């Protein structure tokens, strides 16, 4: 009986546990604290700092199963997925690690024992081949003398292009970081007898599967040209679980192992495809794994960074679903099967199942609007293409207009043997990026292109006023020496108490003054590293180098500060209410209110809003001291501070604490105690885009004013309803019911009126070539009723043209109906166009019904009359149109 993938995973851990290794969990797919990596791509990532000697070694022997993603950066397998039998976007890497403990000999012996011993994987020795780095004589000797592999099955691999360490047997984590020579173990899955290294190279692609990479980490790559020795020698090994399962389950492709077969069967049931080796089935099966795990690590589809990788993979899967003819939304439905097949590794998926399904479904709904259309255009362009290359313009158009990631388009092209002009596409994309960032800059500094990089010291955290020296003055974007009375401009100081708009917090207002002059500051913004005071000089003049006092408006600042502290409370309360998936996506902190955008896939109910308000107002009543501290980024992270902008912080960060309820990195200004906020009230809740919600709230006196306004409204309503506020609901319910009764009565009455009118109209109708022509002008009737009459007459009489007009004051409206059997000769649209032309009104419609209106009522009787002869001319031969 073959081992299942689950059993193989467990055996690996058990084997190394028996050898004194401690089992540690794999790390998240999103690497912590490592800006060099987009996603975790190897088991060693989480131990990078230990390899580098920057972190203490707690356990010298470790074994893990690591979820890995190879879809970008140095290790990228996305394009190969589905087309080869051994590449995946997502895979599980089995790895044993030694940190300054055993080295080459034991690492190789352990690997050999696990693979070949009867008790464990029991692979026949003659099926295994190994490679070593050309200069690594030590490993060569271990394989040859200790393991006793025949030397012809030990392949020595050198450097490519004469470039030192550029070799398949020298493993590097990325462009920088830990690295070292490696030895790889290959499995010959064919029946072919391979005799020596020459034959090995010739047959590598068809006969061999690389199953295990053992890396001897002893170097650190600092740059392209510089490599240094590490303090300790370490072992990092990696074996793809899917590959070793394929070997042990006796199948030639990873897609034939138990996990994938169940997934693939599940997908094929949604289609009419019987061939389980279909590339699209494989791609979808691969992609549901990566997408589900990425989402479980709190990434959502977006147009940037990790979110864009996720979006690209989802969309590529959806396109393959489309290709298989799947009509309904399907991708999210695979999550349940995935959870079933992933065994011990599915805990995180189970926990986030509903969220994963929801996000996948939303992305599918969103993309389905453009997928069909984009594919049609792509198809046309491929047919039109003169050469066998699709132009960069088309690639960019599909990306920009239809949201087609480049891998999706190139996938389609690959199937049709068409190349893509990737370079031109990239140039167009970069151009667009440049242009939009230029636009953004312009927008931010809307009245200038000023950048001042002299640092301006901000003293406004604890002071309202300071003494400053004027450094620069700008008037209409021009650097000047002085500013005179009544001129507006921007003044830069050596230090200030004014906060320059940033991080969502708006700038300050206040005054710059000395004994002779006064400059009213209307706003403050950041220009480069400095803060510009924007405003108008109302007394005297100010020159560069003058000494002045800068004083902010304290009330205004106070309002901003309480809103800023309330924003931190809100962020924490949202996470308490909706879980750790809530992340800030944007904010505005002004003197009047606060606005907070955040990721959240749940529907926000009134009960949630009340809970959030309750949590925050409790914290306000607790009157907690708000403290700010400068910490090392590391320390701040240890304290679990919320870091909103990955990689954007310097090493020392200002951390704002509201006890341990809220800890955030923040440069903004805050109030001293939560009690200063007074009151927190949400006044609006909305959705900004899929998965992003917005809350707007007021605090302090503004919140009270808001509640007063609501009270006043209720008072007014009570007054109008002539009842006290407790009875409003009852009274309104009664009114609604009464209105309904009255409306029904009116409808009854109108129906009777209509019936009478219809009778009259039919009686007075003219006959033209066997059809009835009805035209009538009502006065002070209801336009809606004209439509009802026209529709009713059209239903009752087959051969009919009706023109009904209603005049109220000096305006008229008109409805025209033509029965269906006449529309090949005359249409309502024709008639309305003729009438409106004559009368200079507006109107339009379709063949059987048209409407319009205007002010020229006097000519109406004559025009309606004239239509009779027009109809007469249009209807030539009775037999062409009459229905009996
Ligand atoms: N880091 C090596 C690899 O990823 C061994 O784990 O192949």
UniProtKB/TrEMBL annotation:
Its main location: cytoplasm. The keyword Transcription regulation does not apply. It is found in: Cytoplasm. Transmembrane segments: none annotated. It catalyses: tRNA(Ala) + L-alanine + ATP = L-alanyl-tRNA(Ala) + AMP + diphosphate. Binds 1 zinc ion per subunit. InterPro entries: aa-tRNA-synth_II/BPL/LPL (IPR045864), Ala-tRNA-lgiase_IIc (IPR002318), Ala-tRNA-ligase_IIc_anticod-bd (IPR018162), Ala-tRNA-synth_IIc_core (IPR018165), Ala-tRNA-synth_IIc_N (IPR018164), Ala-tRNA_ligase (IPR050058), Ala_tRNA_ligase_euk/bac (IPR023033), DHHA1_dom (IPR003156). SUPFAM superfamilies: Class II aaRS and biotin synthetases, Putative anticodon-binding domain of alanyl-tRNA synthetase (AlaRS), ThrRS/AlaRS common domain, Translation proteins. It is an enzyme of class 6 (ligase). It comes from the Bacteria. Its cofactor is Zn(2+). One of its GO terms (molecular function) is ATP binding. Pfam families: DHHA1 (PF02272), tRNA-synt_2c (PF01411), tRNA_SAD (PF07973). Zn(2+) binds at residues 564, 568, 666, 670. CDD domains: AlaRS_core. GO terms for biological process: alanyl-tRNA aminoacylation; negative regulation of DNA-templated transcription. Its EC number is 6.1.1.7. Keywords: Aminoacyl-tRNA synthetase, ATP-binding, Cytoplasm, Ligase, Metal-binding, Nucleotide-binding, Protein biosynthesis, RNA-binding, tRNA-binding, Zinc. Residues 3-709 form the Alanyl-transfer RNA synthetases family profile domain. Catalyzes the attachment of alanine to tRNA(Ala) in a two-step reaction: alanine is first activated by ATP to form Ala-AMP and then transferred to the acceptor end of tRNA(Ala). Also edits incorrectly charged Ser-tRNA(Ala) and Gly-tRNA(Ala) via its editing domain. Consists of three domains; the N-terminal catalytic domain, the editing domain and the C-terminal C-Ala domain. The editing domain removes incorrectly charged amino acids, while the C-Ala domain, along with tRNA(Ala), serves as a bridge to cooperatively bring together the editing and aminoacylation centers thus stimulating deacylation of misacylated tRNAs. Belongs to the class-II aminoacyl-tRNA synthetase family. Homotetramer. This is Alanine--tRNA ligase. It comes from Buchnera aphidicola subsp. Diuraphis noxia.
């Amino acid at each position: 009986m073959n081992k299942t993938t689950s059993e193989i995973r467990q055996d690996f851990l058990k084997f190394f546990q028996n050898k004194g290794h401690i089992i540690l969990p794999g790390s998240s797919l999103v690497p912590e604290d490592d800006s060099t990596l987009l996603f975790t791509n190897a088991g060693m990532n989480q131990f990078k700092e230990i390899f580098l000697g920057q972190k203490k070694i707690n356990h010298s022997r470790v074994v893990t199963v690591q979820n890995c993603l190879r879809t970008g950066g140095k290790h990228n397998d996305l394009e190969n997925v589905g087309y080869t039998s051994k590449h995946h976007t997502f895979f599980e890497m089995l790895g044993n690690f030694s940190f300054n403990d055993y080295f080459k000999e034991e690492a190789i012996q352990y690997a050999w024992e696990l693979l070949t011993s009867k008790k464990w994987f029991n692979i026949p020795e003659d099926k295994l081949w190994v490679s070593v780095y050309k200069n690594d004589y030590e490993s060569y000797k271990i394989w040859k003398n200790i393991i006793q592999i025949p030397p012809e099955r030990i392949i020595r691999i050198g450097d490519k292009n004469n470039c030192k360490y550029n070799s398949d047997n020298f493993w590097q984590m990325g462009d920088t970081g830990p690295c070292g020579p490696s030895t790889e173990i290959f499995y010959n899955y064919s029946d072919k007898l391979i005799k020596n290294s020459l034959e090995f190279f010739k047959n590598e692609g068809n006969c061999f599967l690389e199953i295990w990479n053992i890396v001897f980490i002893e170097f650190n790559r600092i740059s392209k040209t510089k490599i240094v020795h590490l303090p300790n020698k370490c072992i990092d090994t990696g074996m793809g679980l899917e590959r070793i399962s394929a070997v042990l389950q006796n199948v030639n492709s990873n897609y034939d192992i138990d996990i994938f077969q169940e997934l693939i069967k599940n997908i094929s049931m949604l289609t009419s495809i019987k061939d389980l080796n279909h590339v699209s089935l494989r791609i979808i099966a691969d992609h549901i794994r990566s997408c589900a795990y990425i989402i479980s690590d709190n990434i959502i589809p977006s147009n940037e960074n990790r979110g864009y990788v996720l979006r690209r993979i989802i969309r590529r899967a959806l396109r393959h679903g489309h290709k298989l003819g799947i009509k309904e939304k399907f991708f999210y439905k695979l999550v349940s099967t995935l959870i079933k097949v992933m065994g011990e590794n599915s805990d995180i998926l189970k926990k986030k199942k509903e969220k994963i399904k929801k996000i996948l479904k939303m992305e599918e709904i969103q993309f389905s609007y453009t997928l069909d259309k984009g594919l049609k255009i792509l198809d046309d362009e491929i047919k039109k293409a003169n050469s066998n290359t699709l132009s960069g313009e088309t690639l960019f158009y599909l990306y920009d207009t239809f949201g087609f990631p480049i891998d999706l388009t190139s996938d389609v092209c690959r199937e049709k043997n068409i190349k893509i002009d990737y370079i031109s596409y990239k140039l167009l994309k970069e151009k667009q990026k440049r242009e939009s960032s230029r636009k953004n800059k312009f927008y931010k500094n809307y009245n200038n292109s000023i950048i001042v990089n002299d640092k301006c010291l901000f003293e406004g955290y604890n002071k309202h006023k300071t003494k400053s020296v004027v450094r620069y003055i700008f008037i209409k974007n021009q650097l000047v020496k002085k500013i005179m009375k009544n001129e507006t401009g921007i003044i830069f100081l050596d230090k200030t108490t004014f906060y320059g708009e940033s991080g969502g917090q708006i700038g300050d207002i206040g005054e710059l003054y000395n004994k002779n002059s006064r400059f009213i500051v209307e706003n403050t913004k950041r220009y480069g590293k400095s803060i510009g005071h924007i405003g108008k000089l109302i007394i005297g003049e100010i020159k560069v180098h003058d000494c002045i006092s800068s004083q902010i408006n304290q009330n205004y600042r106070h309002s901003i500060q309480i809103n800023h502290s309330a924003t931190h409370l809100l962020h924490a309360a949202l996470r308490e209410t909706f879980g750790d998936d809530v992340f800030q996506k944007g904010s505005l902190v002004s003197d009047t209110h606060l606005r907070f955008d955040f990721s959240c896939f749940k529907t926000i109910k009134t009960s949630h809003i009340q809970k959030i308000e309750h949590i925050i107002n409790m914290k306000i009543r607790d009157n907690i001291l708000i403290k700010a501290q400068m910490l090392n980024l590391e320390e701040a992270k240890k304290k679990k501070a919320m870091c909103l902008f990955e990689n954007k912080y310097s090493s020392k960060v200002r951390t704002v604490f509201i006890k341990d309820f809220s800890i955030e990195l923040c440069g903004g200004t805050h109030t001293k105690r939560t009690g200063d906020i007074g009151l927190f009230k949400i006044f609006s809740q909305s959705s900004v885009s899929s998965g992003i919600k917005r809350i707007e709230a007021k605090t302090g006196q503004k919140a009270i004013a808001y509640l007063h306004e609501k009270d006043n409204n209720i008072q007014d309503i009570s007054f109008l309803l002539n009842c006290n506020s407790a009875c409003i609901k009852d009274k309104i319910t009664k009114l609604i019911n009464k209105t309904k009764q009255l409306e029904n009565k009116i409808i009854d009455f109108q129906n009777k009126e209509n019936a009478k009118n219809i009778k009259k109209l039919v009686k007075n109708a003219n006959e033209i070539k066997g059809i009835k022509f009805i035209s009538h002008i009502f006065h002070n009737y209801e336009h809606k009723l004209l439509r009802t009459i026209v529709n009713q007459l059209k239903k009752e009489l087959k051969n009919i043209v009706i023109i009904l007009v209603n005049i109220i004051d000096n305006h008229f409206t008109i409805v025209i109906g033509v029965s269906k059997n006449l529309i090949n000769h005359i249409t309502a649209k024709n008639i309305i166009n003729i009438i409106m032309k004559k009368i200079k009104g507006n109107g339009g419609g379709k063949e059987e019904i048209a409407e319009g209106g205007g002010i020229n009522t006097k000519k109406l009787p004559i025009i309606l009359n004239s239509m009779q002869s027009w109809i007469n001319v249009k209807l030539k031969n009775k037999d062409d149109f009459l229905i009996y």
